[in-house]
Amino acid sequence: MLRYFTAGESHGEALVAFISGLPAGLKVDQSFIDRELWRRQQGYGRGGRMKIERDTAHILSGVRHGMTIGSPVSVQLENRDWKNWQEALPVGEGDPARHKRVASPRPGHADLAGALKYNFPEARYVLERASARESAARVAVGALAKSFLRELGIEVLSHVVGVGAVSLNPQASWEQIQNLFKREEILLNCVDAEIEQLMKDEVDKVLKTGDSVGGVFEVVAHGVPPGLGTYAQWDERLDAQLASAIMSLQAVKAVEIGSGIAAAAAPGSAVHDEIGYSVDGNFTDFTRTRNNAGGIEGGVSNGEEIRVRGYLKPISTLRRPLQSVDFETRQPVSAAYERSDVCVVPAAGVAAEAMVALTLSRCALEKFGGDSMGETVRNFQGYRAQLQSY
Ligand SMILES: Cc1cc2nc3c(=O)[nH]c(=O)nc-3n(C[C@H](O)[C@H](O)[C@H](O)COP(=O)(O)O)c2cc1C
């Protein structure tokens, strides 16, 4: 079974990710992992932190001679900012006078709920773990999942479809999204240059006013065979697993599969993807005229592209802070401010790619099994032959 965890505080020494259940014999390309980490750090509207960090994956276990060996893989990402925080966040007792308190909770962040839950007198420890710095660790193991999926012909990428009030319409093609991936500069990761400029203007607007902005990303999984996930149990449905994986990302407040939101207001005849038959021979000869279902019906992948969107609320740390209360005095004060991003939609999309890749990998391993890549690929090809002769 594919399982993964992360550990680490935003300003601690390092982040660590741990993944077990990958078959042996999967090629591990360090430069691919580092490029994925770089992509997560990009985007117009990021804060100063991203100028300090340049993440690289340090693999500690589970990979030898460039390949997985079937044992758990652990990866460490150093926090370059740690050198400035050793006295404020020591593992040992340290000097309390050096602590950096977060004196007033930020509305929208985890500060108040976390401090109440863990009985902390202020929010420093809360934001250290609630911070989306954690998502870098997911991207590291997500890169391994992407490498695994590639062996089955599955690719996972994302693009941005909305920033604030600006949105992309119509749907981006797989080719357009692939071209985005090749770019060496990531601004708002939108396939349409004119819309991307409008998105940039939207970020400039909030930069000027000390505000922040949210948006929408779309993750597309290309080459997914029919049959991943199942309707047989509620928690094994692929749509449910993807929704949970995407919703687990910081600041994501809604998830949409295919055109799920618009579908709720449309008649069935305008929503459901009609079925045809022609000998075009990918996975099967069944065809669809469109893909409103986002590649999933009944909790099972149907052979079309999987399209899943995440809706991000605006970042909660504001340069012009909202009203809050001082933890100690209980007097009204402005919410705390600490160096912050104002727009993270492209980065969230990259983290979401990792979550989709990890989810699809788990489902694929459940279906095809295998302790070595040879065995998994052989099983996959057997299933593919079964589909083709259906
Ligand atoms: C890639 C990424 C970067 C983020 N950067 C910041 C940030 O710099 N400042 C901030 O206040 N929130 C940031 N967030 C959002 C917070 O982490 C998130 O709002 C907070 O942990 C509370 O969780 P919730 O929004 O899911 O309720 C970021 C989110 C993502 C996905």
Q: What would you say about this model in short?
A:
With 390 residues, the protein is α+β, with helices and mostly antiparallel strands. It has twelve helices and 17 strands. The protein has a five-stranded antiparallel sheet. Strands 1-2-6-3 form a four-stranded antiparallel sheet. Strands 4-5 form a two-stranded antiparallel sheet.
CATH architecture annotation: 4-Layer Sandwich
What fold name goes in the CATH topology slot? Chorismate synthase, AroC fold
* Helicity level: 25-40%
Order of helices and strands: EEHHEEEEHHHEEHHEHEHHEEEEEEEHH
Q: Catalogue the unreliable spans.
A: none
What does this structure look like?
The protein is α+β, with helices and mostly antiparallel strands and 390 residues long. Helix 5 crosses helix 11 (345-368) and helix 8 (238-247) packs antiparallel against helix 11. It has one domain: Chorismate synthase AroC (Chorismate synthase, AroC fold). It has a five-stranded antiparallel sheet with strand order 8-7-9-15-10. The protein has a four-stranded antiparallel sheet with strand order 1-2-6-3. It has a two-stranded antiparallel sheet with strand order 4-5. Strand 1 (3-7) and strand 2 (14-20) form a beta hairpin. It has helices spanning 30-41, 49-52, 111-118, 124-130, 135-150, 174-182, 193-209, 238-247, 260-263, 268-271, 345-368, 373-388, and strands at residues 3-7, 14-20, 57-61, 63-64, 67-68, 73-78, 155-163, 166-167, 215-222, 252-257, 275-277, 286-288, 296-297, 300-301, 306-312, 323-325, 332-334. The longest helix is centred in the last third of the chain and has 24 residues, at 345-368. It is built from twelve helices and 17 strands. It is globular and about 70 Å long. Residues 47, 109-110, 130-132, 135, 249-251, 313, 315-317, 340-341, 344, 347-348, 351 line the site of flavin mononucleotide. Flavin mononucleotide binds next to helix 11.
